[in-house]
Amino acid sequence: MIWRSGSQIVAQLVMWASTFLVIRILEPEDYGLFAMTGVVLAFLGLMNGWGLASAIVQKAEVSARDIRQMFGMLIAVNLALAGAQLLLAPIAAAYFREPRVEALLQVQALLYLTTPFIALPYALLARRMDYRLQGFVNIAAALLAALTALGGALAGWGVWTLVFAPMVLFATRAVGFTIGARSLVWPSFDFRGAHALAGFGGAMALTQFFQFLLSQADIFIAGRAFDAHTLGLYTTALFLAQIFLNKIVPPLNEVAFSAFSRIRHDKALASAAFIRATRMVMLLALPFFLGLAAVAEPLVHVVLGAKWLEAAPIVRLLALAMPFMTLQALMVPATDAHGHPEIAARNALNGALLLPLAYLVGVHWGIEGLAAAWIVAMPLYFLISANRSLPVIEVSGGDFARALAPVAAAATAMALGVALLDRALPAMPDLPRLAALVLAGGALYLALLFALARTAIGELIAVIRNRSPAS
């Protein structure tokens, strides 16, 4: 976990430094255009074979033939997806009423050519739980992508900056992973006997399809209802609110899936590990989300600049919904590792029905109404998912709630304290205001943790020291 998550954090620090500089240079319209293409990329990306690669991680024994078949599947699927995106490009441009979307999607079709050379070696390395090499490659890829993004923004590439930087990121990862895992084998397009791999991968792909509806329905609806500038404000606010969820949680879940797969036959150990892991993640996630809601206005002004201040109320609303989305995401690797990927698929189906309905209602009240829809729908979605997932992991709802209650109480009290302090502070520039709020919030949260959740602190320290917690 330290190698996978630590390298991810280092890589993300590099990317974030570049991203926030680029956001200050580019315009909200650029991010709105890029978000429109992201809907198509996310939809086709559901079928790019990452679910198939996960079957390699979960399977007890993997033969050389399995690896060759997997490589062949990945190549065939992604070539088909590249062709499909070229055909969909003019249709997407017509739907969003934005002709520039067509050219952007045509160039982005090249991304699919790198997927087979990322997914297969990633699966082989994850199967061995070799995250050190992945860490080095991810850091190198992040550095090159960050330099590309910053250089493109300064050179006046506009929205194309957001297209070429991910292409550099994917290409670097493809080369580095393939060399490191020594996974360049001759692909087999004879798929006889691969039904088990395809079945597991298909179930995970179904889950990803519903996750697409969850993650892109708001963009799909907002892209039609608002102009590129307004959509850019919303997507940038969503980027800030989901930084922890999208950048920190995925590598943790990758490690969790591999680890839970190893211990899935020991139900007691697996359930205890799930509770402990969830509590440790929320120990960091809750203060991030609730603190972000409390300091949204000065943070947006300091980090993004005055032209993004309209996004601050959206950030505040979205941040309040993210703890529930994070908890829902943390259950997925546990149920998948127990051999029940259909649980995550059914949960995602519920969310794919519930959240778009909330977005369709909220959008009538403008962009803030769309953000408020998250606060209404996401807690309900989490409760539905927990009711179905926790019995599979053999964790009771009461035990789950009691494990998280002290951390939740500390984070909530911290956020309220920061909000009260913000009102009491005299008028001052946003940078010292933000610094005062962050420092006070951090000190208050640590004090509350020692008072209310000392067990959670001990668990986190034990993991960092690579020892079993005493409690």
Structure at a glance:
With 471 residues, the chain is mainly α. The protein has helices spanning 2-25, 28-45, 50-58, 64-96, 100-108, 116-127, 131-154, 160-181, 195-225, 228-241, 243-263, 267-294, 296-303, 312-337, 341-362, 366-393, 397-424, 430-452, 454-464.
Describe the structure.
The protein is mainly α and 471 residues long. It is 83% helix and 0% strand. It is globular, with a radius of gyration of 22 Å. The mean pLDDT is 84.
Defining key terms:
83% helix, single chain, 471 residues, mainly alpha
Global shape: globular
What pattern of helices and strands is seen along the backbone?
A: HHHHHHHHHHHHHHHHHHH
The percent range for strand residues is under 5%
Rg for CA atoms: 22 Å
Q: Indicate the mean pLDDT.
A: 84
Number of helices: 19
Low-confidence stretches: none
The structure class reads: mainly alpha
Helical proportion? over 70%
**CA-to-CA gap between the ends?**
20 Å
**Got a strand count?**
0
Main pleated sheet: none
